Amino acid sequence: SLAGLSRAQSLPSLSAGYCVYTLHFRGATRKWTSYMDILFV
Asked: Can you give the pTM of this predicted structure?
């Protein structure tokens, strides 16, 4: 069906966006924690 096809096409972009988001979020979190380490050590 057309709906299934569009869902199948939107799924890879969704997972890719999720991947990018989590990677970016982890990177930001790591930056923040290292910043806190510098401040409070």
From this structure: 0.39
Distance CA 6, CA 12 (A): 11
Q: What is the pLDDT of residues 11-40, one digit of tens each?
A: 777 788 887 888 878 888 888 888 888 777
Q: Dihedral angle at the C-alpha atoms of 35, 38, 39, 41, nearest 10 degrees? A: 140
The CA distance from 13 to 36, in Å, is 34
DSSP H helices, the chain, are: 2-40
Q: What are the boundaries of each domain within the chain?
A: 2-40
